[in-house]
């Protein structure tokens, strides 16, 4: 007999509970976390509609899938990974040159145990380096000045970030380039999601001109000794859902990412070389009137070796107000959510996950 427990999640409308099996994670079936080939994404509309049909099926079931032929050069990924390793290998004093405390907007370095994404679990045994959206780095923006001087926006000054890492060879250049290629890919994916919601593919274009877009390096240190799978140990990152629209995740070959299935069992979202993992965040679930799933996931690193991952989170423009997509509403499915400002939503959710109070 399957046994279940509950996982408690943070939401802006109070805690939410999901049922989860206590069984150890199992491998997913091919349909549960499919591998979707993006090789034809720059081809004709029919080819993209074909990709969108596969994405729709995945989005409505587990909410997670892999993408291959995604167009991000392996050499660039390798370079970014080397930079991440060099960064995390430094002393605490060196890493604190870019401490998140020096920035207003969650950029920079968070040390091991400084976050706890799930308050019912342990602290997160990971350290991260974050680069947030800056119009200066956006390849589609020729002149960032109007954004930087508009008081509606509060972009961080990244100078401190680059000064504090300038001793690492090509850190700035590689980190920005990798962020840019993922922004371009994420914009293509959001067009696929528009098609998957039976809307024109440019439906979200206007709200992704200067979107929330965070690129992270993450290091999950190894344990001193191998830890048995059922042992009580700190989570790498606790059970959570992602906040924004779409997450693109590169993970190394260590393993440890677990995803809650549609039947409430943990799935081992094992690394597949040459792929990225894609999942849906709470904001896209909201816009889709819960048709697309923002799925609970977590990471454990119970090996003696480090695990590295590099997620990228795409949201919408901070000053755009988004409502449930019209194709997701009919008489039987009235809109479950009011229109909401994307920026405020993101800020409040980040603050909640960091245990801060939320400004009105
Ligand atoms: O490191 C991973 O594999 C996943 C990280 C994650 O879920 C997150 O940062 O939201
Ligand atoms: Fe996540």
TrEMBL record:
Q: Fe2OG dioxygenase domain location, by residue?
A: 211-316
Q: What is this protein called?
A: Fe2OG dioxygenase domain-containing protein
Tell me which PANTHER family the record gives. FI07970P-RELATED, OXIDOREDUCTASE, 2OG-FE II OXYGENASE FAMILY PROTEIN
Q: What is the lineage of its organism?
A: Eukaryota, Fungi, Dikarya, Ascomycota, Pezizomycotina
Which keywords does this chain's UniProt record carry?
Answer: Iron, Metal-binding, Oxidoreductase
Q: Which Pfam families match?
A: 2OG-FeII_Oxy, DIOX_N
Q: Which InterPro entries does the record match to this protein?
A: DIOX_N, IPNS-like_FE2OG_OXY, IPNS-like_sf, Oxoglu/Fe-dep_dioxygenase_dom
Q: Name one GO molecular function term.
A: metal ion binding
Indicate the family of this protein.
Belongs to the iron/ascorbate-dependent oxidoreductase family.
Q: Its GO biological process terms?
A: small molecule biosynthetic process
